[in-house]
Amino acid sequence: MQKRSLSPSCPLVANTTSVTALNANEGRTYLFIRNYTAGNIAIGLKGETLSAITPVASGSLILLPNEWYESPENTCPTGAITVYQSSGAPTSSILFVEA
Fold first, then answer.
1. Alpha-carbon span 24 to 67, nearest angstrom
2. Which residues are within 8 A (CB) of 3 and not within 5 positions of it... i.e. 6 or more apart?
3. What pLDDT is recorded for position 25?
4. What is the pLDDT of residues 26-77, one digit of tens each?
5. Whose CA is closest to 38, among 95, 82, 91, 83?
6. How many domains does the chain have?
7. Is residue 2 included in any domain, yes or no?
């Protein structure tokens, strides 16, 4: 098993706003995102500015409540990670972990 130094964060995400959750990181080798909110969220893996809960380009995805994304081995996205939620109060219930 590979040992990683993990950096977790839960940035505040306002609704109807595209937020950069993680800056681009060329050294990123692992990415895990977990949606602990009650609503759907959109995730951009290439620094996209998101404006709805729909994939806008290859590399973006939708996470339903309690779903997660884990980067495939050897293909971790290194661009800025953006997030968008369409409704609800601002939340810090989306977990981002990178190594």
1. 23
2. none
3. 94
4. 999 999 999 998 888 999 999 988 888 776 666 789 999 999 999 987 889 9
5. 91
6. 1
7. no
Q: What is the CATH number of the domain that holds 54?
A: 2.60.120.770
Q: Label residue 27 exposed, middle or buried (CB < 10 Å: 0-12, 13-18, 19+).
A: exposed
pLDDT value for 17: 82
| Global pTM value | 0.85
Whole-angstrom distance, CA of residue 10 vs CA of residue 95: 5
Q: Which residue has the tokens 């409540």?
A: 65
In angstroms, the CA 3 to CA 10 distance is: 22
Instruction: Report the SS3 class of residue 90.
Output: coil
Q: How far is CA 99 from the centre of its chain?
A: 14
